[in-house]
Amino acid sequence: PSEFAKTATALAVAKHISDLNTNIKVFKDQLKTFTIIAIPALLVLLQNDTGSTIVYGAFFFVLYREGLPKYYLTIGISALITAILALKFGAIFTSVIAGVLIFAFYFFNKKKINFFQSLFILMLSVGISFGVKFFYESILKPHQQDRISLWLRLEKDPAKLEQMKRTFAYNLNESEKAIRSGGFSGKGFMEGTRTTGKFVPEQHTDYIFSTVGEEWGFLGSSFVVILFVLLILRILHLAELQKSQFSRVYGYGVASIVFIHFLINIGMVMGLIPTIGIPLPMFSYGGSGLWAFTILIFIFIKLDSNRINEW
Questions:
Q1: What is the DSSP track for the chain?
Q2: Is residue 289 assigned to a domain?
Q3: Domain membership flag for residue 73
Q4: 131 in any annotated domain
Q5: Mean pLDDT by 10-residue block, N- to C-terminus, for the chain (311 residues)?
Q6: Full-prediction pTM beyond 0.85?
Q7: How many domains does the chain have?
Q8: What residue numbers bound the domain in which 54 lies?
Q9: Is residue 129 part of a domain?
């Protein structure tokens, strides 16, 4: 159901933002928009599906295009970087670096930011640096902690790392081996030894890209990546051509959802980001996923076909 909820949320966001009474630059309307996105996201999170919940963050690209103040994006990216640095290098080190950067910016840009704003940003950075440690140790589940630990290389013990590769990181380890074994041009269709031998669990769903890497190598993998990039750029181009705000917002919603799925799935399979279980659009096995992405994209195709009649 979470797959179909993404399409419904994209339609709801487009309807709300395109309403004549909605001004995304006003906080009240921003709060309403965030609520529309948060309700399905929280319901999905309660089903213990963190991967699908993260996809709802894609709508911030849509809101940014429609005029959401830039400081939301700046705060979000800064908070994410601060949290990662705090986990990797410690809260004290991160707080010191943040303090140096903030006050350096203050002294060179006093016209843009005053002392009290700089102090507030510093306190926020320190709070995130120390708070993320508590969140990591007390809120996240053990398997989530292990995935982040492996991704950030927090574990230094060789024996523990080897044990990780045999347990929860087995999928990722076998996926990387399969992609490496594909080489430049791959082993050929249905000729991948690790794929046909079913060394990679879930290779037909979340880890489908490892099959592409082994059978078609660097060339085939690059071709798939290029196809996705072209699809996303095409959707964005058509979205900008729309005469109605509803169609444009929905088009950006489609592009953002496909982009997040594409980015996270391929990044996960290659070990570039922590393991997050979401499918690769139009590739991963699953009838609901295929139907959901088909409906998501075909609604936009229908809207675009009616562009000439829009006023």
A1: -HHHHHHHHHHHHHHHHHSTT--TTSHHHHHHHHHHHHHHHHHHHTTT-HHHHHHGGGHHHHHHHTT--HHHHHHHHHHHHHHHHHHHH-HHHHHHHHHHHHHHHHHH-TTT--HHHHHHHHHHHHHHHHHHHHIIIIIS-HHHHHHHHHHTT----HHHHHHHHHTTTHHHHHHHHHHHHTTTT-S-TT--HHHHTT-STTTTTTTHHHHHHHHHHHHHHHHHHHHHHHHHHHHHHHHHH-SSHHHHHHHHHHHHHHHHHHHHHHHHHTTSS-----PPTTTSS-HHHHHHHHHHHHHHHHHHHTGGG--
A2: yes
A3: no
A4: no
A5: 90 93 89 94 88 89 89 84 87 85 75 72 86 83 77 74 70 79 82 73 77 88 94 95 92 95 88 81 85 94 80 53
A6: no
A7: 1
A8: 2-68+140-309
A9: no
Q: How far apart are CA 223 and CA 226, in angstroms?
A: 5
Which amino acid is residue 140, in one-letter code?
L
